[in-house]
Q: What sequence folds into this?
């Protein structure tokens, strides 16, 4: 009897040991998968937020560079410059200087305006000091023939605006203090436009713009701007900026973090990187996509990164939470095993006591065995119920977090990986037809989900790419109006989400036009931007309607809003340059002037406006087929 009791105890201890090992394996495996899954969700949130910040910076740069190009073209095409440099008579340098000074007063970001002859000699230069323009004396004029921006301007096609790379403003070969981040815009004058040959150069002070970029960083992420050689142009620690110009060659990303720099300069630029304990999101900025004669245009990198220690904090907190949860579950499991052990010991004691009476032993043992079986069944049901409940809550939480288009593809791929692991495990244990069919079923649905979300992302990328290509090539081509309107709506969606004003596009049928799609898109965007900026009071809700109708060989487009109308003080001079009611807010008053010029000169149409206290309507009448003839 004692030998049999010892054997039973030995088997029971072996069973408890096996159950303990199984519990440890389940806790370890479950904790690992939970850690990986939850960490992926939290990193995905970081990636989404940082990618949006990168897009904001790229969009701000694009608008700023487009604005600078427009300023340069406006200055060249102004009547004062045209008259002063008329090739049919000697150049009137005094009149040219006067026009430069007037232009500099109207655009506060200008730090210098110059006109150089083909040999690089400065003929007229207007500088700004304390916000006041003044003409530089003839004795102080210099030869800029050896400067890279003059040489690049000489290679630029007539009519094209060349934008230099970002650097610091110099006076007499000395860096201006405080530092002035600058960009130079150049355009040729000559026989192609009936002017004296030379180069028109505008220096733009980007200090205010850089201040705006700094404000885009916050307590959760940093913003950096790095040139193509790895030197910082913008950094949270200002002593690291402009290392090349300030002869701080050690302040270089390639030297301080070569692994990160190699990843950023590789072919997969734009991917999110986890490097040096921080999550990095990046994009490449090109200063001048239209420049010719260069193998690779100068560029800069926009870097948005999580603050140092943020990822480590997330990892530690998540690891701590999962460890605590594991310890709690382990404690519960150990408690259950302990109670089982106590029950077994109690059963053994009762068995030994009842062995003295044969009849009672049989009945007692039978009852105890039945009780033990029921207890085991109830325990198994409880374990299964808790497991399913925990699994259901986890699946519901994951599904809730991943229920966005950007997370759909990641969820599909993660599911496929899990199914593949399960299939691989089943191959070792003996793969069944059910397992294979389950894997194929999950694979098909997962690929469909990933394909749907990735196709949506590809459609958006093609939309923005199409718009960028149209606006960078001012050539007559055929295009679909509805497609152009959709691309425009996509480009404005980010701004509209933050505004109480909604945009309604009323274009109900495909319509093929021949003309300048980029110009037409820019015209509509300027009118919509104008309505968003000036048509409504701050916080006022409303609607902007873009409508298109066809009459014969003409297309009528209208952009209307139900806002506060146009200020009567600027209504009569609405399309004149530099007319604005919000100059104190940084508006230059060139938007509607450019729209007027584009509509009449390039689109061969007409433009009218009606406005009262109930709203404003801009009406365009353009031909369906632009001939391309200019005056």
A:
């Amino acid at each position: 009897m004692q030998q049999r009791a010892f054997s039973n105890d030995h088997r029971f201890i072996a069973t408890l040991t096996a159950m303990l090992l199984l519990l440890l394996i389940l806790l370890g495996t479950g904790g690992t998968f939970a850690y990986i899954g939850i960490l992926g969700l939290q990193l995905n949130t970081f990636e989404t937020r940082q990618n949006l910040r990168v897009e904001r910076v790229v969009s701000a740069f694009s608008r700023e560079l487009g604005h600078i190009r427009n300023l340069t073209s406006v200055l060249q095409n102004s009547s004062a410059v045209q008259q002063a440099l008329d090739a049919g008579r000697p150049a009137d340098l005094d009149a040219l200087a006067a026009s430069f000074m007037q232009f500099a007063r109207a655009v506060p970001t200008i730090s210098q305006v110059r006109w150089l002859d083909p040999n690089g000699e400065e003929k007229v230069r207007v500088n700004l000091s304390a916000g006041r323009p003044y003409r530089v004396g003839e004795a102080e004029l210099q030869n800029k023939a050896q400067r890279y921006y003059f040489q690049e301007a000489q290679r630029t096609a007539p009519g094209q605006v060349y934008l230099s790379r970002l650097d610091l403003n110099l006076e007499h070969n000395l860096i201006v203090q405080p530092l002035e981040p600058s960009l130079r815009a150049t355009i040729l004058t000559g026989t192609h436009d009936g002017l004296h040959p030379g180069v028109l150069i505008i220096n733009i002070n980007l200090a205010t713009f850089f201040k705006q970029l700094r404000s885009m960083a916050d307590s959760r992420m940093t913003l950096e701007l790095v040139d193509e050689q790895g030197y910082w142009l913008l950094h949270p620690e200002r002593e690291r900026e402009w290392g090349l110009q300030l002869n701080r060659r050690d302040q270089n990303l390639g030297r301080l973090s070569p692994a990160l720099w190699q990843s950023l300069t590789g072919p997969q630029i734009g991917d999110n990187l986890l490097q040096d304990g921080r999550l990095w999101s990046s994009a490449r900025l090109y200063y001048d996509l239209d420049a010719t004669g260069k193998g690779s245009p100068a560029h800069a990198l926009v870097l948005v990164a999580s603050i140092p220690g943020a990822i480590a904090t997330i990892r530690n907190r998540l690891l701590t939470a999962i460890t605590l949860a594991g310890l709690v579950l382990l404690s519960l499991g150990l408690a259950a095993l302990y109670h089982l052990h106590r029950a077994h010991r109690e059963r053994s004691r009762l068995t030994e006591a009842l062995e003295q009476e044969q009849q009672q032993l049989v009945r007692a043992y039978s009852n105890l065995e039945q009780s033990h079986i029921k207890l085991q069944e109830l325990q198994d049901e409880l374990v299964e119920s808790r497991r399913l409940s925990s699994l259901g809550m986890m699946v519901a939480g994951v599904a809730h977090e991943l229920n966005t288009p950007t997370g759909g593809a990641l969820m599909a791929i993660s599911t496929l990986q899990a199914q593949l692991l399960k299939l691989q495990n089943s191959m070792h244990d003996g793969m069944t037809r059910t397992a294979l069919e389950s894997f194929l079923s999950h694979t098909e649905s997962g690929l469909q989900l990933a394909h749907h979300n990735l196709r949506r992302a590809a459609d958006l990328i093609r939309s923005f790419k199409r718009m960028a290509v149209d606006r960078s090539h001012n050539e007559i081509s055929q295009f679909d109006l509805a497609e152009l309107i959709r691309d425009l709506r996509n480009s404005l969606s980010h701004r509209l989400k933050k505004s109480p004003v909604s945009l309604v596009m009323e274009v109900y049928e495909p319509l093929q036009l021949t003309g300048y799609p980029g110009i037409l898109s820019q015209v509509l965007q300027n009118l919509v931007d104008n309505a968003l900026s000036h048509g409504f009071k701050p916080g006022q809700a409303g609607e902007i309607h873009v409508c298109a109708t066809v009459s014969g060989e003409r297309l009528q487009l209208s952009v209307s809003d139900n806002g506060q109308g146009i200020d009567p003080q600027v209504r009569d001079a609405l399309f004149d340059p530099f007319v604005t009611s919000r100059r104190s807010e940084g508006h230059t008053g060139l938007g509607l002037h450019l729209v007027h010029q584009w509509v009449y000169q390039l689109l061969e149409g007409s433009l009218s406006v009606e406005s009262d206290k109930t709203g404003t309507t801009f009406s365009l009448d353009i031909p369906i087929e632009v001939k391309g003839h200019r005056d």
User: Anything to note?
Assistant: The radius of gyration is 36 Å. The CA atoms of residues 496 and 502 lie 7 Å apart. The mean pLDDT is 80. DSSP finds 15 helices and 21 strands in the chain.
